[in-house]
Amino acid sequence: MLRPRSLGWPITLAVVMIVLLVLLIVGWVVLTIRSLPLLMVGAVLLALVLAGVVAYMLISISEIRLNQRQSNFMASVTHELKSPLASLKLYLQTLVRHNVSEQQQADFCRSMIEDVNRLDALINHLLDAARVDQEPLENERVEVDLAAVLRSCATAACLRYHVPPENVELNLVPGLVWARPLDIEMLFRNLIDNALKYAGDPPWVGIESRPQGRGRVITRISDNGPGIPADLRRKIFGRFVRAGNELERSKPGTGLGLFIVRTLARRLRGRVSVSSRVPAPGTVFEVELPGEPALEEEPGAAWALTQQG
Fold first, then answer.
1. Pairwise CA distance, residues 289 & 179, whole Å
2. C-alpha pair distances (Å), 136 with each of 180, 184, 196, 225, 283
């Protein structure tokens, strides 16, 4: 794999160019101090050149950082594809070449199903990223029961990460949002998956949603994981952004989940923010969307997944 380009050389080059330009400006002022019109024209031109150099530096740094994130993304996807495929190949070769007991066959089948589910989840994630740029048609927007979507996403995530349902605490007051159902499902599936993936041991996730008046519905998803450093909380919503070295991470991912979340929240005229959980450790993601209370509130808003029958 190619090494990501360093930011050192474009920054150094830009600083040198800016210093030379400042020296040129000083020299121009000294030489034209007695000619005010010439001084003004030169100052304007040199200021434009300086602005161009600064813009070039910022664009270059932005492009190199994007290339680094894309490199991390390719490494992540390659790893996520190669690992389950290698595992499937090994299990199938063992079944074909060796006589194994029925218990071993059952264990192999269970492991292969997990590998297939892992591949399926990755493909769905990439499809989500492709669909997120497609604006929904007006006739695709309907009233979505947010509480039902949150319960469904939480149940699916518990099955995916083999987390006992009682480890997810729900506190939901029914609310309606006007949106394409797929967008709402993608948004909260990514957030709940992240919460369970990075939760502590034992994992705990809290999901709270309630209308707040003023035509808004607030949803908070909390976990007991290690938390997100304050200096990364704005960056994590960028495309392909993941903290650390891609090859040294213990958690799978592509760096697209939170980008999808932010994009969908903005499209729905809402917002998403992240903060530390109190008491620490942990993280809280808050999503605010346009919505309204359901006509009839279900009795007993707080419950665990195990109480849903």
1. 10
2. 7, 12, 29, 34, 31
- Name the nearest CA neighbour of 18 among 54, 55, 61, 60: 54
Closest CA to 254 of 126, 116, 152: 126
Nearest in space to 150 (alpha carbons), one of 211, 200, 202, 191? 191
The identity of residue 265, as a single letter, is: A
Q: What is the DSSP letter of 137?
A: P
Tally Cβ neighbours within 10 Å of residue 295: 7
Q: pLDDT 10s digit of each residue in the chain, 309 long?
A: 444 455 566 667 667 777 777 777 677 666 666 666 766 766 677 777 777 777 777 777 777 766 766 666 566 666 667 778 888 888 888 888 888 888 888 888 888 888 887 787 777 767 776 667 666 666 778 899 999 999 999 998 898 888 999 999 999 999 999 998 888 998 999 899 889 988 998 999 999 999 987 889 999 999 999 888 888 888 888 766 665 444 334 555 566 788 888 988 998 999 999 999 988 889 999 999 999 888 654 444 444 554 443
Beta-strand ranges (E) seen in the chain are 142-145, 168-172, 175-179, 205-213, 216-223, 271-276, 283-290, 292-293, 302-304
Q: What are the distances in angstroms from CA 28 to CA 32, 33, 45, 52, 137? A: 6, 8, 11, 18, 58
